[in-house]
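Team,

Forwarding the record for the chain on the shared tracking sheet. I've put the sequence and predicted structure together so nobody has to dig through attachments.
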Amino acid sequence: MSYMDEYKKWISELDEADPLYEELIGIEEDKADIEDRFYRDLGFGTAGLRGKTGAGTNRMNRLTVGRATQGIADLIREEGEEACGRGVVIAHDPRHFSREFSKLTACILAANGIRAYIFDDLRPTPQLAYVIRQLGAISGINITASHNPKEYNGYKAYWSDGCQVSADIAEKMTERILAVDMFHGVNAADYDLAVSDGLITVLSHEWDRKYLDEIESLSIHGGEELDLSIPVVYTPLNGAGHIPFTTMLTDLGYTNWHEVEEQSMPDPDFTTVGYPNPEDTKAFALAEKLGKKTGAELLMATDPDADRFAVEIAKPDGDYLPLNGNQTGYILVNYVLEGRKSAGTLPENGAMVKSIVTSSLSTIIAESYGVKMYETLTGFKNICGKIPFLEENGMQYLFGYEESVGYALSANIRDKDGISAGMLLAEAAAYYKNQGKTLLDVLTGIYEKYGYFAEDEPNIVLEGIEGAERIGRMMAVTRAELPADVAGLKVDRVIDYKDGYEDMPPSDVLRFFLEDGSWFAVRPSGTEPKIKFYFYSKADTREAALEKNERIRNEVFNRIGEIE
């Protein structure tokens, strides 16, 4: 069926009083907009659904959400009565329609005889991941678009292990979802009636406390080892982090913390920040202002669903230095290992996990402490999905992370977690301050001890059909014309993950290793209209590493930019 046929079908199926109908009638002369809304179904992959909200098959709306939920319900019913009774945990972020979509999801599950657990308000994504296993639920669904712009929303699916669904489960879900008629094949119960009948359970606030207790139990040092008067600033960027993060700081005894007031409460338009991604240094504008006012040594931010975490640290000149995800990872990996060794709690069978596009420096740090660093494909469905393997093989999980400001400290919270990352980094800052050191001193010391590395993770945004096709051509041409050298350095080895690699499933990633130990990777984003690059270089000084990294990046960008 052509995109125009799909458009006409929606017009014929929707009631004229339906806001989706009115939206579609309003664009009847805009063929480009119609094409973008209907040229494809919003894809359900291992990251679930994610797209702009609005009418259309390529949009997040009650029909696409309903279809996805009915498909998942069909799969759970196939698992049997016991699976239906175990239920599904549902959470949501502060975005437009998130609460409505979460209640709709619960009502569809209830209509299919599947128990649904729902929170009374927004909650961090990692809290959902934690509660799934604690309740013994068969699945979890989170209505969130993470750090995307305000026009977006998403639908993230989890399974009984508390991880985002693996590729094989996602494939089964996709098969059932595609078989659902979104207009006539979805059943939904009345919300209030389903609550009174016990098919929908509103979770009590005790689950907030249990989640924070799990995080606070992960503390490595305490008492007189920490300077809890360290001045810090936190911003939830108008998302879900406000209550849990500030409660955590209070619980642990920090006495000089400040929150960005303008960004403390949920705001689906993210009026104070625009693009609510803590990786973007512009998101720290108000935090920097408050930091200078209060003399803060550390600025911390979480994204709207509080799974991502980023920081800026004070420089001697009074300004702030933004750390990229790798640098924050260096400090956290180093603190976990150094801290647990000094506390006498570093196990002989310790293991950490990072993604294939994350810096190799963390591997060097881990191995210096006798800890094995495992690599996985990107995404915490893979990073935290490694935990069962580690446990089955007698290894103790200590930490997992990837360069896109995602960190997972607890084996019981199987997703990236901005709240526990904030707990650990604040503790590290307080611990080192008690020793007369700043986090900048610590980062400098890591480079001096293990080598000077440079990190850069740029991307190229290419939206719409033409953008997606061009990204495909970029990957195809790069595979067909592998470079023999880059920036005067010989390419020693190339790993193409397209057909899988070692124990990893197939993924659209290319990784290039150069003769001097530098390397870079390229892959399309699985959730956003962009192609992503990762550049890593090592040299005798930080400045030399940065300069080398820039030369490699410029040559790669010049080559790929010529692909139309």
